[in-house]
């Protein structure tokens, strides 16, 4: 497991070791001890334990996000794609952070096996680049409807460079999300 800090050092790209031969491939998708050791090596905090796993399936062009949960149910997320491909985005919404309002965008796919660690204090979203894209994520807190919040995916202050050539499919709730300037920090 190789951890690579992104332009926002708290957000980490994870490249698992994949063993492939004529039969197919094998990889260890998660090992808590290794994950914690590698985060510590980078000088990053160890997250709370993962308590919930989620799995979504999306058509090409489905854009989900930018979602986050407010305290006391803020969530860190470890995300990956097991089928298809997605452009994944994490936005720093930590008040007072040197990287507040900046984002990291990476492609996660079944082919590249990469994962992304997104700690508490970030909004998260993705767009499916292929039909039947399966997106899995582990979270450090349970879903709490009363704490859910979102930022608009197309907020001009964020200037996210989403992939071109897609017809975005976005649900009404995400279309009506607040702008970064209207950021909610508590319930």
Description:
The chain is mainly beta. The chain has one domain: Sandwich (Jelly Rolls), CATH 2.60.120. The chain has helices at 32-41, 172-175, and strands spanning 2-5, 12-15, 18-21, 24-27, 52-58, 63-69, 77-83, 85-92, 103-109, 115-118, 122-128, 133-139, 148-150.
List keywords for this structure.
187 residues, mainly beta, Jelly Rolls, 6-stranded antiparallel beta sheet, 5-stranded antiparallel beta sheet, 2 helices, 13 strands, 7% helix, globular
Q: Number of helical runs?
A: 2
Number of domains: 1
Run of helices and strands = EEEEHEEEEEEEEEH
CATH superfamily: Jelly Rolls
Strand order of the largest sheet: 1-2-10-7-12-5
CATH architecture: Sandwich
The major pleated sheet works out as: 6 strands, antiparallel
Unreliable segments of 5+ consecutive residues = none
User: CATH class, please?
Assistant: Mainly Beta
Rg on CA atoms, Å: 16 Å
Predict the CATH topology: Jelly Rolls
Strand fraction equals: 35-45%
EC number: 5.1.3.13
Active site: 67 (proton acceptor), 137 (proton donor)
Site (Participates in a stacking interaction with the thymidine ring of dTDP-4-oxo-6-deoxyglucose): 143
Catalytic activity: dTDP-4-dehydro-6-deoxy-alpha-D-glucose = dTDP-4-dehydro-beta-L-rhamnose
């Amino acid at each position: 497991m190789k951890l690579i800090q992104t332009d926002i050092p708290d957000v980490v790209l994870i490249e698992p070791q994949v063993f492939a031969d004529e039969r197919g491939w094998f990889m260890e998708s998660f090992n808590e001890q290794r994950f914690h050791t590698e985060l510590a090596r980078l000088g990053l905090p160890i997250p709370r334990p993962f308590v919930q796993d989620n799995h979504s399936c999306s058509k090409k062009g489905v854009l989900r996000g930018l979602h986050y949960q407010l305290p006391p149910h803020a969530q860190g997320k470890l995300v990956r794609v097991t089928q298809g491909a997605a452009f994944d985005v994490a936005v720093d919404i930590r008040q007072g952070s040197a990287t507040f309002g900046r984002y990291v965008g990476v492609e996660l796919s079944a082919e590249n096996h990469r994962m992304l660690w997104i700690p508490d204090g970030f909004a998260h979203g993705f767009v499916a680049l292929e039909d039947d894209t399966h997106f899995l994520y582990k979270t450090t807190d349970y879903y709490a409807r009363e704490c859910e919040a979102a930022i608009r995916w197309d907020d001009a202050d964020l200037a996210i460079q989403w992939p071109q050539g897609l017809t975005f499919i976005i649900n009404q709730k995400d279309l009506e999300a607040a702008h970064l300037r209207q950021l909610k920090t508590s319930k």
